[in-house]
Amino acid sequence: MTAGNNGADTPENDDPFAHLYRSEGGEGGTGAGTARQPGVPRTSYNQVRTVGQRQYGTPPAAPQYGRQNPHYAAPETLPGGPAGDRARPVPAAPAPRKSRNGLLIGAVAVVAVVCIGIGAAMLTNSDGDKGGTAQKPGPAPADSVKPSGKPSTKPTPGALPKDDAGALRLDGGAITATDIPGARTASGSYVTGMTTPGASATWTLDVEAAGQYKLWVGYGVPGKDANLTLNINGQALSRPISLHNFAHAPEGAWDKGWTKSWSYVQLNKGTNTIKLSCESGNQCEVNLDQVWLARS
Hints:
- The chain is of the alpha+beta class.
- 10% of the residues lie in helices and 23% in strands.
- Strands 2, 5, 7, 8, 9 and 11 form a six-stranded antiparallel sheet that branches. Strands 1-12-6-10 form a four-stranded antiparallel sheet, with no helix packed on it. Strands 3-4 form a two-stranded antiparallel sheet.
């Protein structure tokens, strides 16, 4: 076989491993892509590299799998040793739920305490009443109304008027006194001087409805009967009001003769006047302590 046509041009070109250490530029050349010229010695004998060391072109990016995160640290290097040796964090205990039964029991307890307190208060008041302790002030009894010196005006709604005789308008010598005990007023006062002709006591009062009423008069006599003229809204009645000795007091015993009597009167709705007077033909030896109305 002759060189140049049947075999390698030089003995060194007859190397089956020559492609492993050829230059990057091509066979036998040093330039990029330059073809080797016949007769020009190769320049790659001084560029021998280990198999697999040469890199052609831009090295490919390293695969992502298998690479370690630069911030990653093996469990064995962490404080406390491997993950299996480190204590795991204990989860926080869940907040306790409010028990509905507990709330219900609390509500029942509060109601029970309130009921017990009310019962104790009622029992205390009841015991206080039995023991004679002072009671809460209530409305003054009718007999304890103090004379005001002024005529009565409007009564309490639904109630009929009542007055001390000393609160009426007094004329003709009628005056108030307290010498004789037993009068049913708070101050013990009464109207006297009715024996003088023309002496009178006039009551001004209001009623909610027109109609017939009973006029009650509280009085005292010295053991004998008396009477006075009755004048309603300026009109004198033909029959006087009888003031008998219903107490059966002995004659002269003024303090034993306190009693009461009544007579029918016809009144108008609204304001009315009732006058008790000593007129001619009356027996006027009497003292007056109270006047009041009642339904007939």
